[in-house]
């Protein structure tokens, strides 16, 4: 086989391996920070993994399905967190859209600013929208379950992680009544947070 043919086969093989290795973790479609034009973080603090806790929020903004709208919402949340709150970055580790995409906030193994007293020991996942009366879409709910399993598979989350709604830990309506009621049916939900 000519050298060019060998290189071509090698490139195809490496590409296939990369796709398979990503899929083997069972991750949803994750839009990386560059994909939503994230501003640079002014400070990064790393977490010790695997992380024991997951805190679910909602953003209390409009919800979104299509990527262009979702990207604008995520970017506006980051701008608010950095400019108004004076945080180093967006507070959430991930944000979930009704269209089924997960948007990388600060991502895995980085300390967020989503739940005071829990930031250093939890991953904060926010559903984009207000889920007081209605649930997120079926696509969004599937995406968060895939994201959680992905975190376990990658060693980012403890396999026995505990899941909370933000309202269990701080004085907030988040993640909304409808979503909070749904959370209580999920595996790993814990009705008694460790404070």
From TrEMBL:
Limits of the N-acetylmuramoyl-L-alanine amidase domain: 39-176
InterPro entries xref list: Amidase/PGRP_sf, Amidase_domain, Peptidoglycan_recognition, PGRP, PGRP_domain_met/bac
One Pfam match: Amidase_2
Annotated ranges, domain Peptidoglycan recognition protein family: 28-170
GO biological process entries: innate immune response; peptidoglycan catabolic process
Disulfide bonds: 27-150, 64-70
Cell inner membrane among keywords: no
First and last residue of the signal peptide: 1-21
GO molecular-function terms, A-Z: N-acetylmuramoyl-L-alanine amidase activity; peptidoglycan binding; zinc ion binding
Keywords associated with the record: Disulfide bond, Immunity, Innate immunity, Signal
PANTHER family documented for this protein: PEPTIDOGLYCAN RECOGNITION PROTEIN, PEPTIDOGLYCAN-RECOGNITION PROTEIN SA
Family listed: Belongs to the N-acetylmuramoyl-L-alanine amidase 2 family.
Protein name: Peptidoglycan-recognition protein
Taxonomic source organism: Armigeres subalbatus (Mosquito)
Gene name, Swiss-Prot/TrEMBL: PGRP-S1
């Amino acid at each position: 086989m000519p050298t060019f043919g060998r290189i071509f086969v090698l490139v195809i093989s490496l590409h296939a391996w990369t796709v398979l290795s990503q899929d083997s973790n069972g991750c949803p479609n994750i839009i990386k920070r560059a994909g939503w034009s994230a501003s640079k973080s002014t400070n990064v603090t790393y977490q010790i993994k695997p992380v024991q806790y997951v805190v679910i929020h909602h953003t209390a903004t409009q919800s979104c399905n299509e990527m262009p709208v979702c990207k604008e919402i995520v970017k506006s949340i980051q701008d608010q967190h950095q400019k108004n709150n004076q945080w180093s970055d967006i507070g959430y580790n991930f944000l979930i859209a009704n269209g089924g995409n997960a948007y990388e906030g600060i991502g895995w193994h980085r300390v967020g600013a989503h739940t005071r007293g829990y930031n250093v020991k939890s991953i904060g996942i926010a559903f984009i929208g207000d889920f007081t009366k209605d649930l997120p879409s079926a696509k969004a709910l599937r995406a968060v379950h895939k994201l959680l399993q992905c975190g376990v598979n990658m060693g980012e989350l403890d396999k026995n992680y505990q899941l909370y709604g933000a309202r269990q830990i701080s004085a907030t309506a988040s993640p909304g009544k409808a979503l909070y009621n749904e959370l209580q049916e999920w595996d790993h939900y814990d009705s008694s947070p460790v404070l």
